[in-house]
Amino acid sequence: MDRSRNQFVSNASHELKTPLSTIKILIETLIYQDPMDPGMTKEFLGNINSEIDRLNGIISDLLSLVSIDSGEMRLKREKFRLDDMVRDCTRKLAPLARERGIELEETVRDAVEITADKSKLMQVVYNVIDNAIKYTPRAGSVHVDMARAGKRAVIRISDTGIGIPEEDQKHIFDRFYRVDKARSRETGGTGLGLSIVKQIVMLHNGTISVNSEVGKGSTFTIELPL
Ligand code: ADP
Fold this sequence. Notes:
about 50% helix
């Protein structure tokens, strides 16, 4: 195996080990701690369940990366309304935003028809909005804007969140890269989301860029040819 592949396997294993160790600790506590009150037991089982969801998420991300790398990721192109898709993503994430005390609003300026892979582009927009919510403290806001600019569609996702230091901005689309490891793990991040997002956008001949200031917020801009 070459060095980068070794690095990939090592990073991937590390990511899988984290939730596994948590599950192990929780289960051992359940086994050896007696008597445990039913409320506590239920809470532990709930935590184990969340860690399993997380393992599943990491594995799906890893499988996506492998399929991109092997050139096997095929786009299933279909004609659809991009504006409806963006509205759909915002609607799906509204409950999460509400739960986190974040105002999520959208401005869809134009009706835009595109021929592209709908579910993969949905994954892109969903992921970037999800990050915007995750990295914005309570009482902040996330704004999703979509418009047509000549032969391109431009989707802009801005937040009033923690922002990304200048020196990290060029790395956030790299695999496994996290700005603040502890904080990102806390929010359930793997550092894989944006690398997959970028690959999908590139497969569509589009671009994704970030503009950010620490403490003020970030804006991600996705441009797709029509
Ligand atoms: P993760 O799963 O850790 O969120 P991503 O690949 O989606 O991984 O993002 C990479 C890193 O970029 C994150 O760990 C986080 O540090 C940073 N990041 C992404 N989106 C935002 C945002 N909207 N605001 C601040 N930081 C962000």
